[in-house]
Amino acid sequence: MGQPLVHTLRVRYGECDLQGIVFNAHYLSYFDTSITELWRAACGSYQAMLDRGVDIVLAEARLRFRAPARFDDELTLAIGVTHIGTTSVLTHHTASSSAGELVAEGELRHVLVDRATVVKTPLPDWLRDGLEPWRVAGPTTSGRSTAPAQD
Amino acid sequence: MGQPLVHTLRVRYGECDLQGIVFNAHYLSYFDTSITELWRAACGSYQAMLDRGVDIVLAEARLRFRAPARFDDELTLAIGVTHIGTTSVLTHHTASSSAGELVAEGELRHVLVDRATVVKTPLPDWLRDGLEPWRVAGPTTSGRSTAPAQD
Amino acid sequence: MGQPLVHTLRVRYGECDLQGIVFNAHYLSYFDTSITELWRAACGSYQAMLDRGVDIVLAEARLRFRAPARFDDELTLAIGVTHIGTTSVLTHHTASSSAGELVAEGELRHVLVDRATVVKTPLPDWLRDGLEPWRVAGPTTSGRSTAPAQD
Amino acid sequence: MGQPLVHTLRVRYGECDLQGIVFNAHYLSYFDTSITELWRAACGSYQAMLDRGVDIVLAEARLRFRAPARFDDELTLAIGVTHIGTTSVLTHHTASSSAGELVAEGELRHVLVDRATVVKTPLPDWLRDGLEPWRVAGPTTSGRSTAPAQD
Q1: CA A29 – CA C144 distance, rounded (Å)
Q2: Architecture per CATH, B5-138
Q3: ipTM of the complex
């Protein structure tokens, strides 16, 4: 087992809505910056992967919003690889406040594709090896509930 | 049972990324426009709900990306209410191309809060009644799989 | 002289900020939807222009914010072509509320480029002819003041 | 005379468009992060200004796009105060690549308003004094040309 990859990001003014908190769609964008950092750590850069003829597309996302983040907050973003399949990579994401409070978490499933044809393609070994240091255990069963929990 | 509420939306240039397709985070923003339309249909407008002292916050989201949408595509967005709990509302969303192809789908769970205190509050009857015409059956069991599906 | 091309656009929730009004950067995005509509009117679609081997890039923008727009407002966006140069197109933009109040206005200068090389290229006649119906007089002198006006 | 305030920002994947470059509207958002940093340097934080009962609104913006920025580029953003009026503040902005190339520049004119009434109000001395270290000479006359330059 490895450990999550961590970076920080400051909430921009235009990312906060009428409720005074980060608008929900921006969390997908924040988690995407974690994917960029993971690719940098795993194989030099996202561009380096493209240069080797493969790309990734997002197939599925699951997000849980735990506490509001506000303008100018510095969020800590952590990403861990929870599963490496034949053609897909599952990542677990958290966004936490500088006080350590969990703000949001999510799971993303990306699929590797041939860059030219955009057809699913198996993960090459150099990518598998590069992701290995960031392998973590998946979220607990309680967090993997079926449909979005009902009150 | 009622029927989904439908509106259309045209993909903007700046919403498409290097892959030539809509960047994933924008789907949460698109589905949010469906929420706005649902509130318009259910109680006059989102603002009308705020004026009566309640607001909604997104607690959980689940998104599946089925086919790419591209710049200038006109997407058909459909929203149906799949569950009304004591304090929460579950909605099912689809985005389809003008050719009828399913582009993306999702489930969102919103929680009703007191506008002033932002504390969970039960759905008032006027909101329950307003949402009733847009009640639909939930997604099939196969669509409610536990964690994001693995290859 | 022709007339401005007009379309409407509804302000999204996530486009409004802590001040309860549309965040300024979104106006550039709104005006870009007017460019898309202009291209549709002038030569079939933006894609049709790309298919003929040319593209446009924004070189310069000038924006004046006159009155706030708010969530769920339906804005009327008007675009007129104020100048067609050898390689550039100047457009004047307004965003108005449904009550007819001027919300924002701007001037954009786009440059035509070869799609493959991204090098400046003269506007072909088919594009000049297509833009002609949307030619309008430029903004008044008072609106063309030098630096942003000082109080 | 003081000096510009500088910070860095990494271009996100979703901020790049079909042309492979940063979509123009994001530069207004980038320059807004510079405003946030200026307020932090001038009076502790943007929030500290709000707490003292005043806010700022953008009245006018002028942007010139010099060279493309791309995904994952680290941009250096510089902001300098070029004019402090009775109720307004003029700032000059640049975005440069890590190689030092000028990517985009702009001038923004903000107006100070009473936070409660949103009516124009004179800049208090504490704000004037706070901005003083970041005073720079305005852009050269050639950069202050009237309408967007024509080819």
Answers
A1: 38
A2: Roll (3.10)
A3: 0.91
